[in-house]
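User: I'm new to structure prediction. If I give you an amino acid sequence, what do you actually give back? Let's try with this one:
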Amino acid sequence: MSVSRIFGQNFADRLGILVSGLCAIHCALTPLLMLLLPTVSFIPHSEGLHLGLAAAIPLISVAAFAPGFRIHRDTRVLGYMVAGLVCVWIGAINPGNALSFVTSSFVTLTGSAFLIAAHRRNRRLKRCCPTPALRTGDDNF
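Assistant: Good question. You get back a string of structure tokens that encode the predicted 3D arrangement of the chain. For your 141 residues, that looks like this:
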């Protein structure tokens, strides 16, 4: 049974927007907290948190985008999703510490923005055009 059947059609998109938004807030605030409060020993910045988000976000994204894509076949949603997931994974995993902390946060923020845009577009297209035959190709989403 799919997530959308259990919690409603837009639940996975809403959850995706929420998790991507929390990821963006975390990535934006952590560097600021580190600059403003250098003596604070606890700042929520751990590898476990990053790997957990990096694992949860793709699962939520697939749960949201797969049913929607079957309906609307909008490649822009797919493109935003792929760009967002790649950015989130690069920022979260940061292979070999190739990126500085600030650059890694910026890449992850960019990925979160792409994912939020993809979830919003996916929701609008599912709501507006429930079947492929009704879709007009209007790009005002």
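You can read the tokens as a compact description of the fold. Here is one thing that stands out. The CA atoms of residues 28 and 114 lie 15 Å apart.
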